[in-house]
Amino acid sequence: MKNFALLICFLFLTIVAYSQNNSATFYMDKAQKEFDKRNYDEALTTLSYAIIELPDSLVLYLMRGALYDGFKMYPEAIQDYCFSISKDALSELEALGFEIEDDTFRAHHLIGVKLPNFIAIDRLKAQLLKDKIYISFRGNYIRLAPHLYAEKADFTRLVQCIKSIID
Q: Which end of the chain is more exposed for a tag (fewer CB within 10 A), N or C?
């Protein structure tokens, strides 16, 4: 995943750096050499210098677009991302008595979670609405559908919300 992120950064900076100032171009060339030597930490450090030379609004806009486009090209990266942001929260829910299919047998962008009998569904729905957390209910299951817009903090909020209604 680290190499994938670096590749995306290089793609986006290649487009931008050569249309900007000489300083960004210098750092871009240096970072490319470090990347070619598989010195990834140095390449990332050098990339940060190149990014500093670019206008903030342009950097944010292009980085977001490059990441999104890169993820579209690599569906497995979406699965990896969704797994990384959800794994801790799902483990916590399992410890509380929720049932979740083993992660080797399910997709990570669509997760079914069986609610234990002690959870009052109406109370959970009300608390989720109050906390502005929107998930889908399917009988005694909730369906979680993370994607690139989701963050680990979203899962942390979900677990905290659920814990708040457990007596």
A: C
